[in-house]
UniProtKB/TrEMBL annotation:
One of its GO terms (biological process) is G protein-coupled receptor signaling pathway. Keywords: Membrane, Olfaction, Sensory transduction, Transducer, Transmembrane, Transmembrane helix. InterPro entries: GPCR_Rhodpsn_7TM, Olfact_rcpt, OR51/52/56-like. Residues 1-99 form the G-protein coupled receptors family 1 profile domain. One of its GO terms (cellular component) is plasma membrane. GO terms for molecular function: olfactory receptor activity. It is a multi-pass membrane protein. It is found in: Membrane. The lineage of its organism: Eukaryota, Metazoa, Chordata, Craniata, Vertebrata. This is G-protein coupled receptors family 1 profile domain-containing protein. It comes from Aldrovandia affinis. Its main location: membrane. SUPFAM superfamilies: Family A G protein-coupled receptor-like. The chain crosses the membrane at residues 33-53, 59-78.
Length: 141
């Protein structure tokens, strides 16, 4: 991204594209899941103040954090791996400043049906932070 801005290039190499795609999505998903864990912590602190110390121990929070990192890593690794295994006909330079799935799929020669299905499933799947204040979303925590 720095080389694109500093050197006035209008393309990104494939290796840098997949790295950028993974890390950009990984950190945005980590933000959402971290907010969900924070909301759970606040829920326990407000609703069960006397049991807070026994429910949210250091080990419990460490396991929750490690599980969150592992889950987000696996969620984001699969689409990037699928996109990297596609055969590409045209040049392998992505004509975009910010590398996402769309510009990469344009260069693919093969059928991208499963990749698009996965992207749609990820978009439509309920995320931990998608509850409105009027809904009861206790089941997600």
């Amino acid at each position: 991204m720095v080389s694109v801005c500093a050197l006035d290039l209008n393309y990104v190499s494939f290796g840098a594209c997949f790295s950028q795609m993974f890390f950009m999505q990984f950190f945005s998903d980590m933000e959402s899941f971290s907010l969900a864990v924070l909301a759970y912590d606040c829920l326990v602190a407000i609703c069960f103040p006397f049991r807070y110390v026994t429910v949210n121990t250091s080990l419990q929070m460490l396991l929750t954090l490690a599980g969150t990192w592992a889950l987000v890593f696996l969620i984001e690794l699969y689409p990037v791996t699928l996109a990297s295994r596609l055969p590409y006909c045209a040049s392998r330079a992505v004509r975009s400043c910010c590398c996402e799935h769309g510009p990469v799929y344009i260069l693919a020669c093969a059928d991208i049906f499963y990749n698009l299905r996965l992207a749609k499933a990820k978009t439509l799947a309920p995320s931990p932070s998608s509850c409105s204040p009027t809904q009861q979303c206790w089941w997600r925590f």
